[in-house]
Amino acid sequence: MTPRSFLLTPELGDYVRAGSEPADDVVADLLRETAELAERGEASPTYQIAPEQGTFMQLLTRAVGARRAIEIGTFTGYSALCIARGLPEDGSLICLDRSAEWTGIARRHWERAGVADRIEVRLGEALPTLRELPATGTFDLAFVDADKTGYAAYVEELHPRMTPNGLVLLDNTLRGGRVLDPRDDDDAALAALNAALAADPRWETVLLPLSDGLTVLRKR
User: What is the 3-state secondary structure (H, E, C) of the chain?
Assistant: First the structure.
């Protein structure tokens, strides 16, 4: 049940993870508990980012010196854990999510990791909550992993709230390859967004073939 890129064979996926910084006990336990949710049919395994993506996001957060971050779609908290670990001790991460149950699992693991004091969870619909935040350059990094048809609106609302050179990371932008031949509204929404972002002069854009596709936007 460990998430991996659809572009990799299981063997190559194992090799990629073996060539990256290994997961500690907190991460291993969180991934295991999340996998058990999926095995019981209480959540989709696609909700969880792959371990190599989490490691990359933690490294990227630290490398760009991000101090203030926001996440849209937290699930059981693995991506938030990675971002929070990449922040300095006085850094902050706001997590927007609808589920008290899933973010409750997240909180336990954040406490174990010693980063709970850097993370604030705001429960409710993400778009109205995001719009309530000041429309000024606040965040150095944002991660979006929520309803796919909402991505375009999230990107629009994030733009004025990002600092110059701030990074926005968008998950699942390859949709298992279905962006080439969309089969549902989610596929179609991300195919359209990918095309729009590549031509949007407000952002420097790269779509990386990492996990299920990770788009990185830099605010110009």
Answer: CCCCCCCCCHHHHHHHHHCCCCCCHHHHHHHHHHHHHHHCCCCCHHHCCCHHHHHHHHHHHHHCCCCEEEEECCCCCHHHHHHHHHCCCCCEEEEEECCHHHHHHHHHHHHHHCCHHHEEEEECCHHHHHHHCCCCCCEEEEEECCCHHHHHHHHHHHHHHEEEEEEEEEECCCHHHHHHCCCCHHHHHHHHHHHHHHCCCCEEEEEECCCCCEEEEEEC
Q: Is 149 exposed, middle or buried (0-12, 13-18, 19+ CB in 10 A)?
A: middle
Read off the CATH number of the domain in which 106 is found.
3.40.50.150
As a whole number of Å, the CA-based R_g of the chain is 16
Structural domain contains residue 61: yes
Query: What's the pLDDT band for 2 if we cut at 50, 70, 90?
Result: low
Compute the mean pLDDT over every residue in the chain, rounded to the nearest whole number.
Answer: 95
Q: Identify whether the C-beta of residue 150 lies closer than 8 Å to the C-beta of residue 126.
A: yes
- Look at residue 31 in the predicted model and tell me its pLDDT: 93
Angle at 6 between CA 107 and CA 3, to 5 degrees: 25
The per-residue pLDDT for range 124-162, each reduced to its tens digit, is 999 999 999 999 999 999 999 999 999 999 999 999 999
Q: How many domains does the chain have?
A: 1
